Every structure is written in C-alpha cells, then in structure tokens.
Amino acid sequence: MAQKDLELRHLDTLDRDLGRFSTLELTTALVGRPLVAPGVALVFLLAAGLTAALIFGQANNAMIVIAAAIFGAYMALNIGANDVANNMGPAVGANALTMGGAIAIAAICETAGALIAGGDVVGTISRGIVAPEAIGAPSVFIWAMMAALLSSALWVNLATWIGAPVSTTHSVVGGVMGAGIAAAGFSAVSWPTMGAIAASWVVSPLLGGIVAAGFLWFIKARIIYRDDKIAAARVWVPVLVGIMAGSFSAYLALKGLSRVVSLNMGQALMIGAGVGLAVWLVMIPVIARQSRGLENRNKSLKVLFGIPLVVSAALLSFAHGANDVANAVGPLAAIVQASQTGSTTGAISIPLWVMLIGAFGLSFGLFLFGPKLIRMVGSQITKLNPMRAFCVALSAALTVILASWLGLPVSSTHIAVGAIFGVGFFREWDAERRLRLSGEAVPERPRLGEGERRRRKLVRRSHVMTIAAAWVITVPAAALLSAGVFLVMVRLGG
C-alpha cells in the first residue's frame, strides 16, 4: 500500500512537471510567434549586407555600400508591408482570392515588375530630384543619399507602426529633397521635376478615381442593368479582360523587350492590340462555360468576374513592382555608382544585385507584415464585390503603368485609394440618380441626424481627411528627418 502511494505521488509530481513544461512550451510559442517575422526580416537585412560585402570586398567605400544595402533592404521591407496591401486588398476584400493566394501572386508579380520594368523610375529617384553636380564632392552626395534612404525607411516604419496611411514614394522623395537641401541648399533641388512629381500626386488619385468610376459605370450600364445579365456578361467580360491584357502586353513590350530589341510606341501598341485580341477570343468560351446554369441575378456575376479580378490584381502588382522598387533602391543605386566611379555626373546603371534587393524586399515585406493591411484596405473604406474590385484594380494598374512609363514616381497608395473612393462615390451618385429616375421620393436628408447621414453613405468620410492629412505631412516630415540625419552623418563621418 505504501509502495502504491509512493508511486502515485511520483506520478502526480511527473504530471505537474509535464504540465509546467507544456505551459512553458505554449508560452514560448506565444512569445516567439510575434518575433518570427522580425527575425526573418533581420536575416534578410544581413543577407543584403553580406551580398554587398562579397561584391565590394576590400574597396575603399565597402562599409558605406554595405550600410546602404542594408538600408535599402529595410526600405523595401517597409514598402512591401505598406504599399503592396493596396494591390491585393480589393481582391481579398471581394473574396476572389484567399490570403495565401494573394500573397503568392503578389510576390511573383512584384518581383517580375521590379526586375523587368523598374529602371526608369530608379533613374528619376536617384538623379532627377537632386542634381548630383550641384552637391559637389562624391562623398557628400553619398552621405546625402544615405540620409535619404535611412530617413525615408524610418518614417515609413514609424507611420506603419502608428497606423498612418502614408505614401512610401512621398517619403523617399521628401528624403532625397531634404538631404539635398541640407547638403547644398535649395538650388540643388530640381524644382521643375519636383513640380511635375507633386502635380502627379494630385492628378493620379483623381485619374484613378475617374477611370475606376468609368469602368464601374460601363459594367453597370452594359451588364448589371440589362434584362439578361448573363448574356450581357458573356459579351462584355471577355472584352474587359482583353483590354486589360492588351494594356499590360503593350507596356511589357515597350519596357521588357526594349532590352532585347528596340521598339517604338506604335510597335508596342500593335503587340498589345494583338495580345488583347487573342485574350478576348480565348475568354469568350471560358466565360460561356462559366456562365452555364447561372441564375439571372447580380450575385451570379461575381463568379464571372473572378478570373478578371485575379488577373487585374496580378497586373497591378507587376506595375507596383516596376514603380515602387525605385523607393528602395534608387538612392542605393546612386551610392553604388558614386562609390565605384568616384563621379556623380555619369549615367546611372542599375546593378542586378541592387534590383534583387529591392524586388525580394517587397515580397518579404508583404509576406511577413502584409496580411493585416490587406484586410484593412479590402473592407475599411467601402464595401467591395468582384465587379467593383475589378474596376479598382484595373484602374490603378493602368494609372501606375502609365506613370512608370513616363518615369514619374507616383504613389500607388494615392492611385489605389483614389480608385476605391471613385468607385464608392460613383455608387452613391448612381444610387440617388436611379432613385430619382424611378419616381420614388428621395428621403429628406435634413430630417436625419448628422451621424445617421454619415452612416448611410457608402464611403467612410473619416478616411478622406485622415488620408489627406497623412499625404500632406509626409513630404515635409521626411525632408526634415533626412536633413537632420544627413547633418549627423557628416559630423560623425568627418
């Protein structure tokens, strides 16, 4: 009996110890889970620095280039965490893509866009904002680009942490401008270029909203408001997909194939027209097969817009990679060029390893830190379904592609948010217009309380002022931070 009591006590002690170990393991897992993403990000930063160290070896400016590579990788991670959500948010919010599928597609297309078509905007960031010859010594120019890179990365990281919807493009342009002013005064800044960039920040969200509203009007007029919605969709959905494929192909021919064979705008448009026509013909039987057995109602149309929405989201990710990779590696490319040649006036060439840092940084940032923001963008501003999300994604993609072709570093955040607002405001206008045309009395708005009137709107008005305020403050904040970082770096460097 005593032996059995002793064995039971040992078993109780063992159970308690095992329970403590289980609790410890669970606690460690809970504590360690939030540290996985920062840990992977740190490994990526170290890999970027190691790559620069292997390439530059014992060169005089090796440490500067290594630090710049780490800063560029850090900026790329922040861009992936912040901006890429604008690309996949509409598709996820409309339930056309799962979170895993969205991340996989975005990672592939962001990397392809950065590597194939990212060169022009990199040149604008690294040389177009601040004239290198106005700064003087290459060492001063290198410090200015280092300050711009670090300050813009810090600002985006801070803004993301506090939940402010800022533009990474605003941040890096402000950083370059602030460092240039601190290094050589206001004359170092190319104010005509800054004026064009600033104008694009105003025009791009308006253009994105107008184009998105135009596509939504077309879909409503030609498909949704028709008596036989499915028959109308069989006609027009292939056309919309063909337009999207043709635009993408023309841009890819002009940018990607130009490295192999010289193509002018007319030839690129001919290629785009051919591909668009082929895709239109291919999509006709695809949509016809998908539409079999569908009921003649709006809910059935969501099935037919699934493929176009996924393709348009992929197109937008490609365009974002082409445009916003400049924010991460533009200053880095300038630092590498100045370090290798000792001159700041020669043509900037973009090394492959520099573009790889930017491309993979975007993908890592999206994968590690993007899902929460993707959900927010997809549902917080206005309610999206596949048709509305298609309009947003296609509008944003076309606008970003045009901007990248022109070499203007516009903000994909501005364009995507502008497109979402455009869709929402068009829905409000169209709902009231149809109510009037139906002959029914429009509800008396003065009788509603202000809170109830805001609640009934299809677009959350609070986001308008929040986003506008964030857009306004980012450039001066990044410029001031960059100027301060530059002065500190120069003093420490010596």
How is this structure best described in words?
- The protein has 494 residues and is mainly α.
- It has one domain.
- Helix content is 82%, strand content 0%.
- It has 19 helices and no strands.
- It has helices spanning 2-56, 62-82, 85-93, 99-117, 119-128, 132-135, 138-162, 168-184, 191-224, 229-255, 265-290, 298-304, 306-341, 352-369, 371-379, 386-406, 412-437, 450-456, 461-493.
- Helix 10 (229-255) packs parallel to helix 13 (306-341).
- It is elongated, with a radius of gyration of 26 Å.
- The N and C termini lie far apart (83 Å).
Structural class: mainly alpha
User: Percent helix among the residues?
Assistant: over 70%
Main beta sheet, described?
none
**What value does the Rg take, in angstroms?**
26 Å
Number of strands: 0
Uncertain segments of ≥5 residues (pLDDT<50)? 23-32, 441-456
Strand content: under 5%
Look at the structure and give the mean pLDDT.
Answer: 76
Number of domains: 1
Shape: elongated
Q: Distance between termini? A: 83 Å
Instruction: Name the helix and strand elements from N-terminus to C-terminus, one letter apiece.
Output: HHHHHHHHHHHHHHHHHHH
- Put simply, the count of helices is 19
Assembly type of the shown chains?
single chain
Membrane topology: Multi-pass membrane protein
Organism: Paracoccus tibetensis
Pfam families: PHO4
Protein name: Phosphate transporter
